[in-house]
Structure formats: C-alpha cells, structure tokens
Amino acid sequence: MTVVHYLNQFFAGLGAEEAADHEPVRLDGAQGPGKALAAAGLAIDLTVACGDDRFALDENECLATLLSWIEEADADVVVCGPSFGSGRYGYACGVLARELGRSGMPVVAAMTPDSPGVLASEGAAYIVPTTGNVAGMRDAVPIVASLAARLAAGDPVGSSEEEGYLPRGLRVNVLSDELAADRAVGLLLAKLGGEVRTEIAPPTDRVAPPDPLADPTAALVALVTEAGCVPQGNPDRLPTRHANVWLRYPIGDRADLAPEDYLSVHAGFDTTDANEDPDRLVPLDAARALVQAGRIGRVHDEFFTTTGVDTPVAVSRRMGQEIGAELRNAGVDAVILTGT
Amino acid sequence: MGIPTVFITALPTIAQMVGANRIVRGVAITHPTGDPSLAAGDELALRVRILDRAVDMLASDVAPRTVWEIDG
Prior knowledge:
The structure holds two protein chains of two kinds.
Chain A: E1 3-8, E2 25-28, H1 33-39, E3 46-50, H2 52-57, H3 59-72, E4 77-84, H4 87-102, E5 107-111, H5 116-120, E6 126-129, H6 137-153, H7 160-163, H8 180-192, E7 220-225, E8 229-231, E9 247-250, E10 262-264, H9 272-276, H10 284-292, E11 298-299, E12 302-305, H11 313-329, E13 334-338
Parallel strand pairs in A: 1-3, 1-4, 4-5, 5-6, 7-11, 7-12, 7-13
Antiparallel strand pairs in A: 2-3, 8-10, 9-12
Helix pairs in contact in A: 1-6, 3-4
Chain B: E1 5-9, H1 12-17, E2 22-25, H2 40-58, E3 66-68
Parallel strand pairs in B: 1-2, 2-3
C-alpha cells in the first residue's frame, strides 16, 4: 500500500508566508501532520508539497508536476491536508483531488465545509469536515487515516452520513430491508413530527448574489433562455430534450423575435402560444423598449439558448459556466434569463 | 465577481431550489414574458413592465434566492 500526502509550504515545514512561492517538492516519508496520520495507523510513503501562492499562480504547471510524482510513486491513495480554513491551501487540495479523481485515484481531504476546495474538488474527494484552525487536527486525523487506509486497500467505505465526510453529490444504490412504502410513510410521519429527512437530497449549488448593477442606464444586457428558442427550421439541430449544448444567434438588427423567423423546439411544454410570438420566451421587443426609454444601455447583439428538459444539474452547470465565460468576454454587465 | 442575472420563470420555487438568487415570477410556464389573452399593445406593455421589474432587481442588493412579483 502506497500513500502520498499533499501539504502546503507551512505544514511541510518549508516556511510560512515567505515560502508561499515555494516550487513543488518531494519529501521522503511523513512530514508535519503526516506524522499524526502515521501515528493513527496510516504510514506515509511520500510527501509532496507546494507553496500556496506558487500553486495559485502556476496552477497548471504545479499540477502537472505533482500529478507526475504521484503517478511515479504508484500511489494507492492520496491524502490532501487537513487544510482547515485556509483558502489557498484548501483550493489547491480541491483542485489536486479533482484531477486525481479523474484518473480514478481515491483521495481523502479535510477542510472546513465552506472552503473553496470543497467546490473545486467537484465531489472527487472524501472530504472530512474540520474546524477553521489547526485545533481540529486531533478530531480529523483518525477519520482521515481510517478512510484513506480502507480506500487504499479497496475496502468498502460507508455513506457520508455513516462516515462523517461531506456529501460528494453521488447517489449509490443500496439494498434496504424496508419496503419503499414503509420508508415513505416513515419520512412523512417524521415530517409531521417536525423532523424533515430525505433519502435523496436535492443537489445544491449555492453562489452569493453578484453585486447589483451600479448604473443600469449604461449596462450591456444579454438575453439568455432555456426555452429552446431557435431560428425557424432549427438549423443547428438544438435537441428538443436532454440538450447538452447551447447555441447563440445574432439579434443585433432585429426589433423583436418574429414568429416567421423563430420558434421553440422545447419538448417540455406546449409551445403553441410561444410560437405565435417568441418574444413571450425571449423578450427582445421589450428589451428594445427599455433601451429606447433609457432604462438600460444596450442589448447584447446575440442571444443564448438551450432546451432545459431532463437536463442534469451537472450539465446545466457546465453550460452556465460556458455561457458565463462568453458573456464575460463580451463585456456583458447583466443577464435576463427566461425559463419555461 | 459574477454577472448579475435575473431569472424570469413561472416556477420560482424550483428556481430557488437550484440556487437562483434574483428571480421574477413570470406569467406562465408556456409564456413567461407574455400573455396571449391580452391585446397586442397591452401584452407588450406587460412585457415591458416585467423587464422593468427585472432591471430594478438587477440594480438591487438582494438576499440569496429572492423572488419578486411582477407588480410589487
């Protein structure tokens, strides 16, 4: 069993902030918190470490180096952290975990539930929740060591509820001794008693509301929709459901979306009313009126579209990030998004 | 950070569930920014009112997952 441990400059003993630019290094055996893991039964074979600032500035380069060392070591499991409340270290742990997870490597990390590393890991790591500072080491170490040892040995690991790691956003099939009807009634009775439980928590993706527009009258506003609005004939064959692509169409010279030029191919609702006037889905005529009235600056000269039917949240998230990046590049200040 | 976005939808509870922050309740699932029962001029006026409300929301500080009605 080969265990690799990832640390930042501080925990690896390379120095504090003055060493935050430290390039990736390999160190034999356990360092710093690795010694506590070893005492808890998880012998560390190799420690890899990197300065927090260096990782943030040269992410791709640092990742490539660290990943190549971990591959060379033929690791069975990788432990990242604990990074506690450290933003930069937590992020580095999360990114490393995500990349390792893509190659199928089991990863155990430990950090505060609100660390940026949790989102960055994209569910690839078993993340043990910790306190904000190193005082939580004693609680975290045995859980991390136990999870990592079992993952390295290929032994089964229980659910997040049983083991105490943060939910990874995965659903795993399990056999229950109780019939679904019995379980459902049990949940209902618990709810009537004031205790809300669920077997399948809805996926959550919480981001803080972006700052409001300081001056709408100067804003470049984009229209985006999941209503499946496309030019007549659907020239780019936007799927009517299960779409995993988004499209964009120029509207710079148009006053509205005329029914002879546009339609909705959305398979999730009756499009009769919408196809009589596609502005009922993509309100271009009203947006033009707001420009005319001086309420907003300009309307972005293309609209973005997809069909939101049976679309997994992960696909929606990716499309949202891709569209967001395009809008950002185009200098768009605000978005009016319509959904059906 | 982030581009302020207002989501116009007739299903604001679902929008809240998935984490949208600025939500304006649309007219109906099949026509969030229109109403086929209105005369054309009235319908455009309604649509402008919805977008005016949406722009107000884009320019406002909001708590996470806030829903505004068209006429509020």
